[in-house]
Amino acid sequence: MEKHTHTDDPTPPECFRMEELEMFQSFENQTLVDVNYYLWLNRGESEEELPIRFLYALELLFESNESLMLSSGEDSEAIRIINAESLVNTARQLQELHKKVLIQRMSAVAQPLWEGVAWKVLEAIHLSRNEAGLYLNDAVLLDFGSKRILVRLSEREGLELEPFI
Fold this sequence. Notes:
Number of strands: 10
Strand content: 35-45%
Helix content: 10-25%
């Protein structure tokens, strides 16, 4: 479970750190081949309660066999770049704590939002800045040229995805 605590890093918690910005840049101009959603299933204690589902992580897989995984984190206060090991550790800890699987993978490349994006080049990743010029970690705009997708924090929990026009 990754945290944004680096005692020697002066970056505010609401901003991306330099290594995250560099990672974003490394994915620009790469060809997207697949998309996975990792859903957090928060089931109630009784069978009558409807489960709450939210998008915990988004995984973009590229032709280079590299992947970019964005997560709302456990606190849903910032978008974080995580790795597969971190996701597996979080899922394992949740399963041990709740005695049931709570994170589920779903292929999303066939979803309408991603239509026409597979096998396209991710031309750029755009981020907003604060007054000090630092890049905020509340939203990420994935720019595929003819189609742009906004990844942002949900008002409730997790990530929200929508076309950006």
